[in-house]
Design goal:
Strands 1-2 form a two-stranded antiparallel ribbon. The protein has a two-stranded antiparallel sheet with strand order 3-4. A hairpin with a 6-residue loop joins strand 3 and strand 4. The chain is an alpha+beta fold. The termini are far apart. The protein has three helices and four strands.
Amino acid sequence: MGRRKTEMKRIENATSRQVTFSKRRNGLKKKAFELSILCDAEVALIVFSTRGKLYEFASSSILDTIERYRSHSRINNTQTTSESVENTQNLKEEAESMRKRIDLLETSKRNFLGEGLGTCSIDELQRIEQQLERSITKVRAKKIQVYREQIVQLKEKEKTLVAENIRLCEKVNSSQQLRKPYADDSSPSSDVETELFIGLPETRTRLVSTKLRNS
């Protein structure tokens, strides 16, 4: 029968809790000892029971290990604090730089709209004028490009419509040619010629020879 998995929660029964504490404490000390021997690691273990009793294990001196831990913690805390201060300073500088850039862009925008030009020098006004001329040139070039693209599209559409018109005309002509023979058969311009003979074959006389034209 396999071992039942222990649920990770506080053991309510005091006796069972004390037994489990003793077993697992010894097992934990054994694992710490094995880790220090197998891996040549400096290990220190401190455990306080619920009654306040101290249990400890150290691969060397537990006080030396604790002091080493404190020194390492102070160094890490100092490094973390320094990095935090440095990061904060960098963020402030970056925010200030972005604010100045935004102000410059807002000023340039107002100048391009013809606003706030009273404080501009001649050089600044010339620079704004040149920038506007370059912008107008780009806008006009883009407009010409759009016009050309639309002309090409309209020409392609015209070709499609012309081809469709030719196809429809050919279809109409073909239908008219198919109906024409039936119209000729019913035309009133057909000629009918009849002959009537009376008498014996030897003395028969043509009585009537007529040509009827139905109109």
